[in-house]
Amino acid sequence: MPKLADIHEEYDFLEPDDRYRLLIDLGRDLEPMPDALKTDATLVRGCSASVWVYPMKTDDGRLHFLADSNAAITKGIIALVLQAVQDRPPAAIVATDIGAELAPFDLGKQLSSNRTQGIPNMIALIRETAERYAS
Asked: Could you say which protein family the record assigns here (predicted)?
């Protein structure tokens, strides 16, 4: 997966329809999440589409997230969020302002409110997970 800044550089250059395609492509590149992990416990509340997030702690203490959605554009948004936190130490994730990392994409203006309403809930879940592992 390319760096968030590189993705933004390409995203900023594109027309709105092409931005949707880029998000869909990013979603397609997400690491597959086994269906067995898509449970009520991993479901992110408040999303218009179904979104699941499953955290795993790696041997070196970093957090790795598996995530999926039943909506293609939402999967792309998930890919952006994960790019800001994936495979980082819990304390680094807690210290990251994920919303600020995503701000250059201006998703609120590019996508409908239905598409973006669950982003804060997903960010909160990731932050809470990192806080639990950091303590």
From this structure: Belongs to the SufE family.
pTM: 0.90
Q: What is the pLDDT of residues 42-98, one digit of tens each?
A: 999 887 889 999 999 999 999 999 999 999 988 999 999 999 999 999 999 999 999
Residue 41: enclosing H or E segment and its boundaries? none
Q: CB–CB of 127/104 below 8 Å?
A: no
Return contacts of 42-49, CB within 8 angstroms, 24+ apart. Answer: 44/118, 44/121, 44/122, 44/125, 45/121, 46/117, 46/118, 46/120, 46/121, 47/74, 47/117, 47/118, 47/121, 47/122, 48/74, 48/114, 48/115, 48/117, 48/118, 49/74, 49/118
Q: Spell out the domain ranges in the chain.
A: 4-134
CATH of 4-134, one of 3.90.1010.10, 3.90.550.10, 3.40.50.300, 1.10.3720.10: 3.90.1010.10
Could you give the residue numbers annotated as active site? Answer: 47
